[in-house]
Design goal:
Distance between the termini: 38 Å
Strand order of the largest sheet: 1-2-3-4-5-6-7-9
CATH class of the largest domain: Mainly Beta
Number of domains: 2
CATH topology of the largest domain: Porin
Number of strands: 9
Strand content: over 45%
Helix content: 25-40%
Radius of gyration: 30 Å
Structural class: alpha+beta
Low-confidence stretches: 9-32, 83-89, 240-244
Length: 244
């Protein structure tokens, strides 16, 4: 009798796991709902299987109560494990949802008449990260400053930009105000390339919006930036924020 119950439990569990994986991919399910759905699925399937068989009412009553006890203690154990994990670190899977990091970058601008420009970039970036176990996707907003040494004079370029990334591909845009304190230029620079939340390698295409006595930047650049030192981070709980 116990062998029959265990065999039916294994069959029901396998079918339920398949159904649950499909439902999780469509919508988020809390841990408590998983336990309830497991109990309902197993009970209903075994009840339907034995309903039309010629078993005595005493045997069916015994099997039903054994099943209820198994489900009760199984659910109790699972609940205690979840509560113990919650008391320890308040999460099942914990990672940073958002971070603020220092940004360092290098830009190679092709310049004009063979005057190639080597540009150093420093700033801060706010990163929105994808949850663990999901495919990488997110966004980055950053504020930085470019430093260029041209014609024995230091030029700067305050920059505000953002990009999104999916898997290993990035697409972004940034606005830069260049000045050498005697001339100035404003550039809108779309970019695309490879990268993620912690850095990117992109081709940039600075479009001239306004220019006065500043003719150094060509319409194509190669950019490498890294978000390296974490200044702040906000964590999420996998169950709390994504399965509820």
């Amino acid at each position: 009798m116990i062998f029959l119950i265990v065999r039916d439990l294994k069959k029901c569990l396998s079918s339920f796991v398949f159904e649950t994986l499909i439902s999780i991919s469509v919508s988020s399910i809390s841990a408590s709902n998983l336990i309830v759905k497991l109990a309902i699925s197993i009970f209903n399937q075994i009840e339907m299987k034995y309903k039309n068989k010629g078993r005595s009412s005493l045997i069916q009553l015994f099997e039903n109560w054994m099943l209820k006890l198994l489900l009760f203690f199984g659910g109790l154990i699972c609940t205690n494990l979840l509560l113990a994990q919650s008391e320890n670190d308040n999460t099942i899977i914990e990672a940073n949802a958002e971070e603020i990091r220092l940004l360092a970058g290098y830009n190679f601008n092709f310049g004009f008449d063979g005057d190639q420009l080597h540009i150093i970039e420093l700033g801060v970036a706010k990163i929105k990260l994808s949850p663990p176990l999901f495919h990488p996707e997110g966004s980055v907003i950053y504020f930085s400053n470019e430093f260029i040494y041209i014609d024995n004079k230091l030029s700067i370029g305050p920059k505000l930009g953002a990009y999104v990334y999916v898997l290993a591909f990035t697409l972004g845009i940034e606005t830069i105000y260049y000045t050498n304190f005697s001339g100035q230029s404003i550039r809108l620079s779309p970019n695309l390339g490879l990268g993620g939340g912690y850095g990117k390698l992109t081709l940039n295409f600075p479009i001239n919006l306004y220019r006065y006595n500043f003719d150094y930047i060509s319409p194509i650049s190669l950019n490498l930036s890294i978000n390296f030192l974490k200044l702040w981070g906000r964590k999420f709980s996998m169950f709390k924020d994504f399965l509820n």
